Amino acid sequence: MSGDPSDRAVGSGADVSPFAGFLSIRQVRKGFDGSSLVRIGEFDVVEGEVMALLGPSGCGKTTTLRMVAGLSPPESGSIAVAGRLLDGPGVYVPAEQRNVGMVFQDYALFPHLTVEGNIRFGLDSRSANSASRARDMMELTRLTHLADRRPAELSGGEQQRTALARSLAPNPHLLLLDEPFSSLDASLRKDLRREVRRILQATGVTTILVTHDQDEALSMCDRLALILDGEVQQVGTPRELYWSPRNENVARFIGDVNLLPGTADGSLVVDSVLGRLPVQKARTGPVQVMLRPESIQVSYPEDQASVMARVLDVEYYGHDQVLNIHLQSGEELLARRDAIQPFLPGQTVSVRPVGVFPVYEANRG
Amino acid sequence: MSKLLFVPMWLRPQSRSGQARLPAGLVLPSVLVASLLLLPLGYLVFRATGVEPHVWRDLWSPSTLRILGRSLLLVIGVNASVWLLSLPLAWLVVFSDLPGRKLWTVLVATPLVVPSYIGAYVLIAMYGPRGLLQQWLEPLGIERLPSLYGYPGALIAITLFTYPYLFLGLRSAMMSLDQSWLDAARTLGQSGWKTLGTLLLPVLRPALAAGSVLVSLYVLSDFGAVALLRYTTFTSAIYLYWQSSLDASAAALLMLVLVIFTMVLMGLEFVLRGRARIARTHAGTGRTVTTVRLGRWKYAAWLLLGGTVFMGMGNPIIVSLIWLVKGLAAGATLQPVWQAMGNSLLVSLLAAVTAVLVFAVPTAYLAERYRKLSARLPARAAYIGFGMPGIAVALSLVFFGARHAPWVYQTVYLLLLGYMVRYASLAVGPLRTQLSRINPRMEEAGRLLGFSEIRVLWRVTAPVARGGLLTGGALVFLSTMKELPVTLLLGPTGFNTLATRIWSATEEAFYARAAAPTLILLLVSALGIAAIFSGEEL
Questions:
Q1: In this structure, are A240 and A336 located in the same domain?
Q2: What are phi and psi of B232, to 5 degrees?
């Protein structure tokens, strides 16, 4: 593979200057079994941040994680961590020399070792430092009272914390979490997320978390990268990805979506059935305006200034409610409201969009 | 900041195409040992190609064809009698209302631990001319019993110590039969016999086929029983050939023919085992098949079960005990027995440890973790050695050692190699099963914590898979304890083990000298098998 695109990214030598981030991935490509292909042009993680790789199963996010870990090297491209080239043309640093920690989906604890033995595994077990480091890690992860237990005698959450402590003990440059909550009971997840977030903040370790759960990605991470079909679609803060998704696919993957047809005239305003809507980008011609259910304000009594609609259906969640409403012009929209005001199907309400909306070219006829 | 580490392309664990590359530190011992395991077969082929033309003509001589015919006759006869014995036995322990069916199952299976040369000599010592039975009957004026030597003796001896293979296979196949199928067939108006034909036979066919192949392999490879009972088959002919003349090429040619037969059977067994596994996946939930009430037939059932167990297991124990007492009464000393036992334990332990640590661990790991053909080759090589009859392995190494490697000839090292050729494969199987159940992510976790693949294998994988290591080691240990031809031909001069002591004593009809070693061997084997089974239940 001589026409390796990574040659360009890295430059002539192994000079590390092209790498902007703490973790930098450049022009990485891997097609396993010919079925699924991962192509990442440029991806950077800033030191100390928690970055999520979010995407549906099979999108290539775990493959990306395994490439960074050195468990499954890329076919081309380069990966550098902390200014050190780990993968590149003629370079491969084996997994055991990367100083990258990883928590596997099923934790992969060593069943023949105790909690303490697991945590000390990656430390030089003979040094006195290792004992105190292991003690510190157990304290941080609240496992001290379980030090002598074996993995089989632990709950799912305790196993997870052991795995976390084990991978953090050798003080890795980078921590990788592969779907860390997917094998846990749904009712426990929220508490455990908070717990893990607390531990990550306490250590300040740069972290990449792979998940298919958007709530997890949005709530746990400083930034997230959405991966679809083996390619990074957008990288940004949770707020950016939610309110300014770059394209329709990103918008649809995170949260609920209303797409409203409209006509743009090159200004930052688009004509639609909900009136003139302020948008984030100037376009011309037929477009689609994306409105989150939260930005559609529904109220009664009717307000003559706004557009009228009929409530078709109410999903009441306790903390809020989602209304399926039918506009007079024929469109159906989802609108989220606080939980207090009651709505009934059949009721007539007034609708008012609030915010500045992302806008996409009207696609495929 | 840590240093940049450049690793040359050829050392990368994966090539640029993402294909896994095998770790050299594991490939090296595995391939090295595997090629040693192929040495006997390779040398046989080499020698057979170098024979004089007249030897090729001798291959079609009447005497060779007679040997072939006698071997095949024994294969057919043993298969027929094993079927006749195993089918009703398996049916009784699965379908009948006989009390204590679990206990009967264990008892009926125990003759597995009896090596064929022990089985043969106790038959002779009990029922042969001047045997115990004849001595007991002498007061009644019976001076001669029908001769046991030749075909009938070989047939009985080998049947008794091979039927458990088929019995166990048939039993698990019968247990996998779902009662609902039988009921469905009955409600559809099928008669009992038709049910048997349409339902039972297809389910039993894989077990019958696999069991028969195994039994045939056993018959062709067996050396002890046919030699003691003076029935000339390939193995005993080869032994005689070697003892009388030292024309290595002719013996090599005969061995090659035998090995080709066993290889074909091994291939067949390999294919059938795959099928049998598929068939067994049918084993569903509805396990309880209604029992058939035996009524007055239960006496016949008891007779069959009891008779089989008596012939298979009772006979060896009784004969050995009687001769032990007789020997001790005549002032025999047990001193040489302890020495032989020490030797047996030593070489068996050495063989087991070498097979597991040097060969099985890297080989099973490569085969399970790198699932491509080249990674599985060493495991296949061991399987080929396992399929070679012991006499062929032993003589091939004798020829090779005497001619090309006199410095190992007549040493324990060549003996160990012989054991490895025959049994190294036994250590790989259980370990592979165990490895396939271990999460490879655990090994990756070990690597990310700073340990190389090989160090992870010893620090994580091996301790977690220790059950498989122990089972494999125990199988090699027990098989080596019982092994006869390799020990006989490759052992250093004057090197006695339990097996060779039994052999030399029985060849000369000194049954008292064989008694104590026999009892020890049977006891160790039974304990070992029990330990393996109870370990696997967990």
A1: no
A2: -80, 110
Whether residue A1 is contained in a domain is answered as yes
Give the residue numbers spanning the domain of A26: 1-99+211-255
Predicted pLDDT of residue B178: 65
User: What is chain B's percent helix, strand, coil content, to nearest 5?
Assistant: 80, 0, 20
The CATH number given to whatever domain includes residue A348 is 2.40.50.140
- For residue A73, which residues of chain B lie inside 8 Å, CB to CB? 12-14, 18
Whether the CB of A300 is below 8 Å from some CB of chain B: the reply is no
Residue scoring higher pLDDT (B191 or A242): A242
Single pTM value for the model: 0.80
**Among the three residues A197, A221, A255, which one is the final residue of a domain in this structure?**
A255
What is chain A's alpha carbon radius of gyration, rounded to the nearest angstrom? 24
One domain for residues A4 and A92: yes
CATH (domain of A6): 3.40.50.300
A130 in a domain, yes or no?
Answer: no
Of A151, A122, A119, A150, which is closest to residue A135 (Cα–Cα)?
Answer: A119
User: B189-227: b or e for each residue (b if 16 or more CB lie within 10 Å)?
Assistant: ebeeeebeeebbeebbebbbbbbbbbbbbbbbbbbbbbb
Q: What is the pLDDT of residue B24?
A: 82
For B51, phi then psi, to 5°, come to: -80, 160
**Residue showing tokens 């090309």:** B404
- What residue ranges of chain A have pLDDT lower than 70? 1-20, 32-36, 125-126, 302-305, 364-365
Same domain, A71 and A6: yes
Q: Which of A280, A246, A248 is nearest to A264 (CA)?
A: A280
- Cβ burial of B56 (10 Å; 0-12, 13-18, 19+) is exposed
- Hey, of B448, B455, B460, which one would you mutate to test binding to chain A, going by the most A CBs within 10 A of its CB? B448
Query: Is B78:B144 a contact under the CB 8 Å cutoff?
Result: no
Cβ–Cβ contact A63 with B under 8 A? no
- The alpha-carbon radius of gyration of chain B (Å, integer) is 25
The pLDDT, as a whole number, for residue A7 is 37
Comparing C-alpha atoms, which of A128, A111, A131, A40 is closest to residue A79?
A40
Query: Do A91 and A53 belong together in one domain?
Result: yes
Residues A78 and A218 in one domain: yes
| Average pLDDT, integer, range B43-64 | 78
ipTM, interface predicted TM-score of the complex? 0.83
d(CA A109, CA A101): 13
How many Å lie between the alpha carbon of A219 and the closest alpha carbon of chain B?
A: 27
* Boundary (domain end) residue, out of A255, A290, A316: A255
Interface of A with B in 164-183 (CB under 8 A): 166-167, 170
- Residue A133 included in any domain: no
Same domain as A343, residue A270: yes
Condensed to tens digits (0 to 9), the pLDDT of residues A82-108 reads: 989 999 988 899 999 999 999 999 999
Element (H, E) at A333: strand A332-338
For chain B, domains (ranges, CATH) are 22-42+358-494 (1.10.3720.10), 52-307 (1.10.3720.10)
- Tell me whether A130 touches chain B (CB under 8 Å): no
Residue B20: per-residue pLDDT: 56
Tally of structural domains, chain A = 2
Q: Is A122 within 8 Å of B463 when comparing Cβ atoms?
A: no
Confidence of residue B383 (pLDDT cuts 50, 70, 90): confident
Residue B397's Cβ-count burial label (10 Å; 0-12, 13-18, 19+) is buried
Nearest Cα to Cα of residue A23 among A212, A237, A209, A227: A209
Q: Phi and psi of A179, rounded to 5°?
A: 45, 60
Do A2 and A95 belong to one domain?
yes
Torsion on CA atoms B49, B50, B51, B53, rounded to nearest 10? 80
Residue B279 in this model has a pLDDT that exceeds 60 = no
Distance to chain A for B444, nearest Cα, Å: 7
Are A235 and A321 within one domain? no
